Every structure is written in C-alpha cells, then in structure tokens.
Amino acid sequence: xxxxxxxxxxxxxxxxxxHKLHLLSIEANKSFELILGYLxxxxxxxxxxxxxxxxxxxxxxxxxxxxxxxxxPAIVLLIISMLVLPLPSFLLDFLFTFNILLGxxxxxxxxxxxxxxxxxxxxxxxxLATMLRLGLNVASTRxxxxxGHEGPDAAGKVIEAFxxxxxxxxxxxxFIIFAILMIINxxxxxxGAGRVSEVIARFTLDAMPGKQMAIDADLNxxxxxxxxAKKRREEISQESDFFGSMDGASKFVRxxxxxxxxxxxxxxxxxxxxGISQHDLSFTEAGKIYVLLTIGDGLVAQIPSLLLSLAxxxxxxxxxxxxxxxxxxxxxxxxxxxxxxxxxxxxxxxLVPGMPSxxxxxxxxxxxxxxxxxxKRPDTASQFGASDLAEVEAPANPLQEELNWDDVxxxxxxxxxxxxxxxxxxxxxxxxxxxxxxxxVRKKLSAELGFLIQPIRIRDNxxxxxxxxxxxxxxxxxxxxEIRVGKEMAINPGEAHGQLEGALTKEPAFGLDAVWIDPAQxxxxxxxxxxxxxxxxxxxxHLNTILxxxxxxxxxxxxxxxxxxxxxxxxxxxxxxxxxxxLPLATITSVLQNILDESISVRDMRTIIEVLATESSxxxxxxxxxxxxxxxxxxxxxxxxxxxxxxxxxxxLNPSLEQILHNILQQNGSNQGVVMEPKLAExxxxxxxQNAQDVENQGYAAVLVVSxxxxxxxxxxxRHRLSDLTVLSYSEIPDDQSVNVVAxxxxxxTVES
Length: 753
Description:
The chain is of the alpha/beta class and 753 residues long. The chain is 63% helix and 8% strand.
C-alpha cells in the first residue's frame, strides 16, 4: 500500500511533466509553423521580385531590338524553309494569297510613284518576291506529287479553286489559257521591260558626266547652294544605281517566267507518272487530278508574276515628273480634239452594215459628247496640263496682291549679265564652255588673293544687246564687251604680221587690237603671230582682270571673319588677343582692303595678324597699320615683281623732286585731300609714264621706289593714272634683295609748291 502511495505522486509528476512537454511541443510546432510560413512568404516575395525584375530586364532587352528590321530576314528564312521543308496545305493557301496581295501592292505603288526613285527599293523587293514565288512553286510541287492522288484539294483550296475556275472541265482549254498567260508575260511584258531597263541604264550612265557638270555650273553661278548641289549629286548617283539594279533585276523576272513553264511540264509529267505507277490510277483519273492541280498551281504563281512584270515595265518606262502616272494619263488623255475625232470614227463604223451598230454608236457618241464638253471648259487639261491648272486658279489680278520682301531683289556681289545671243556659251549641252571658265577664274583668284571669292551669278539680260555682256560688281557695271558666238578672237599682241579677214574689234580685257575670225582660220592666224581665243576664254579673261583690279571690294566683314577663323584653327590665342580686344573687325577689314587695293595677296594672314597685334597699341589708324604691315610682306611683294635671285629694276625720284613732295604732304597735314600744282603733277606723270614704258619694253615690271613717308599718298595718286606702275618704299625691299636703278624721275623743280 505504501509503495502504491509513494508511487502515486511520481506517476502524477510524470504525467504532469508529459503534459507540459506536450503543450511545449504544440507551442513549438506552432512557432515553427509560423517561422516556416514567414520564410515561405519571404521566399515567395523574393521570387516574385526576381520574376518582376527578370520580366523588366527582358522587356528592356526586347525594346532594344529593332523588330521592324526582322521582316526581310524572316521572309528569307521562310523562302529557305519552303525549299527544304514540306508545308501543310492551309499554310500554302495563306502564302499563295499573301503572294497575290504583295503583287497588287507593288503594282499600285509603281503606278502612283511620280518618279522611279520614289520606289528605289523596287529591285530588292522584286528579287525577294520572285524568290518567294519560286519557293511556293517548289512547296506546291511537293504537295501535288506527294498527295495529289488524294483529290483536287490535296494542295490546298486556292490551287483547287483556280484550277477548276479556269479549266471548267476542259483540261486542254486550261492548258492553252495558261500558255497564253506565259507568252504574254515572257515575250511581251518581261522582254520589253528588260530591254527598256538595259537602254535606260546605259543612257543614265552616259549622261552622268553632263549632269554633274550642270550641277557644278549651277553651283558656280550661284543658282543653288552647296547643300542643294550635294543632294542633287546624291540623286544622280542613286538614279544610276537604281537603273543599273533594274537592268539586273529584270533578268530575274525573265528567268522566273522560264522557270514557270518548266515547272508546269515537270508537274504534269511527274504527276501522271506517279499517279499511274505508284497509286494505280488510270490515265484519265491521273490526268484529271494532276492537270487540274498543275494548272491551278501555275495560275496562282503566274498572276503575281504578271503583276510584278507589269510593275517593272511601269517603273522603267516612267518619265520623271512631279505627277503620278494616273494624273499624267488623266491630264494628257483628256484631249477634246482626240475624243471628238475618235468618237466620229466609231459612229461612222457603226453605220456600216453588219457592224454591231448599238455598241459602236453608243461609245462613239459618248466620246464625242465628252470631248465637246471638255472643249467648252475655260482651261482644259489639254491646253495647260494638270500642273498648270492650279496656277490658273490663282488670283488673276497681281495688283491685288500684297508686296513682300521677296519682291525686292538683293544686289549680287559679282554678276555676269549676258544678252540672249550669248546663252549658247552657258549651255553645256550645246558645247558652252563659259561656266567652266568662270569657275576656273574664281578658283584661281581665290588661291592667289588668299580668300574665297563669292559665287559669280550668270544671268541673261533682255535689256542689253544680244551679243553684249556686262560684268557687274555690287550692282554697278565695271566692264562690258561684245562677243560673237561661233567666231574666235584673233588678238594682235603687237608683233603679228599680216592681215586677217574678219570684223575688227578690241580685246575687252586689255584693249588690244583683235579680229573676229572663223574657227577654220585659227591655225593660219597663229602662224601670223596672232593669239587666238574662243569667246568663253575672252569673257573669262576680262572677268579675271576686272575682279583682280577690284579685289578690295570683294572682301567684306564675312570674308574677314572666315580668314580669322581659319587662322584660329592653328593659332587660336593669336586671334583671340586681337579681336575684339585690340582691334574691331571693321578696322581689320579696312586694312585688308588696303592691302588688296595695291594688288597684294592676303594669304599670309598669320603675319598680318601679328603685325596688327603689335601695332594696335600704338595706333588705330588704318593707313598707319597698312604701312606697318607692308614691310613684313616685302618678300611676297618683290617675289611677284621679279624672279628669285634676279636683280630688281627700279625707278627713283630725283632728291629735289622727292623733297618737294615731302613739303607738299607736310603743308597739307594729312594724306587726305593733298593738292599738287597742276604743272608739277603733269610733268611728273609724263616722266613716270615714259620711263615705265621703257622698263616694260625691256621685259621688266615698272617699279618706283620712294621714301616710306610719301609712299601711301603717292601710290594712291599714281594708281588711277598709271595702273601698271608699282610704288614701293625703301623699307619694303628685303635687305638681301639686289636693286638696279634703271631711271631717275626728274621734272622742273623751279615750280613753286
């Protein structure tokens, strides 16, 4: 009993302990489940986040792919798969329908294109469409030969429908119709389009040099700008590439037509053989099935082929205009006279016994009535063309229109006005060489003077005589001459002997005696010592002389800025320090104009800018700055007068005469408005002219050397009287340059100054 009593608490304690452990285990399980649930939720959230991130990255990666560029590769892969893999009949139906749709789209685009380059992708599209059609032929041939014994619908519903509709139960008629379509496509359309493509490609390549010259001429004349010229050159290149490609693409169309005929024969022969030998069909049953499938297959393929061939012919026979083929045909066929005459002829034919009078009379009367009403319209398409109708509808009274700035013409810097009789000299198609000559003058002067001469605008002017031309600078005529088209100018340089038959004239540039002769007399005139030039060369020489003598007027602020920008590319600090800190752009322009005014190039802009930067702190006067620059350009000046290592022949003033000039300059106080006693001036000019002529007769340039103080004033004074005489100062002659005094100018110095 005792043991039982003692055991009872132990058992109770054990039971209680077990119960508590059970409760703890339950709580632990709940906690563990909560932890697992929490972890599960975390894992699910992380997986969802990763999924979203993956999808986002995938979408970003997909957005980087240009899906529009996958169309052509997909078609190429489809064509390759059709050549290798068998296609189900429903997919073949879809592709045949798509092929017909593609052909219709292409021919519609060809009809509505205003010029061939509007459909520049046509050669490549033609190739792909041809290969797609050949791939379909291979795929359909496989189905016809493999499953043709199963029935007319074995190769798809499209082939079956075309076959039954055309054949109509008569296989011979179906074959003949298919043969006619092949003949039309192969002999008429394809062959004609191929020949036209070949001829157009040849003529386009032959015309490229002329078109390029025309663009250069328009650019040189200022008719178009550089961007327009670049665009026109690209169009010419594209046109040449297009017609060259079309010449090759037309061969694909021709080959496709031949392949269609061969595939037809192969399908019929192969189908009959397989049907009779492998499927135990009678000749009639095999013919019924395989001929229907073959004709249907051929028609489904030939209709798009005919459309593409017709599109090719339309594209290569188009005349480049701003209108589509539809508008052209509408405007040009709506001719009242043609409609009335054609309608009258049909009415007469309808009155002939035996003719279907109703049809002839109805159509004839319709055409005649239509032509009558068209003739009553105030402005018909037959008179003006469709493009002009819009202009006819514009306001007829110009007085009611408001003026704008477009009605005010700006003065061209350099222009060449020609009479209408000289237009053949400008037209490259008639052998005119004036435009290349003018371009050559502009290029040569730009290189010699050191800045770019602006384009020279050539215009016909009805206000001047037919054979007269005017050289215009800033709207003012600076030179003119008379030219005879079809003749050549024989110039007498002073040493020619003998007389020539022709009209006497004066060489426009230098005023030398000349004769207009026939081109056949050219060699004879040269044997007599004459210099013979064509009319274009005579105009170009005159233009070169005028522009060179007025070079200072050709340089403006724009050209000066361009020169500074060009120097800044190599010496940016030099230009930055000068403009606008030390000198304004206007002052630099005036200095450069002074330099050009004395026939000195401004090519050495670095030296000029260095001198200006140095002297600008001392003076801002244009004349003083010019005088400071000239000694630094002394070698360039002398180099233009005498060959290297040769002695420079010069004239000097008598010391007493030079002193008088110094006194005159000091009395007036400036270089502006200096007045000389007339007798003194005339005597000095006469002596200078005589001695300058003697020096030039010896083959040297006439050069007068004076003191730096009087050189600017004396140079301006002499320039207008003796343009060929160069006036230098002693400081402008390099130290190592040998000098030979050939004359001393002296006048009566007793004249009071």
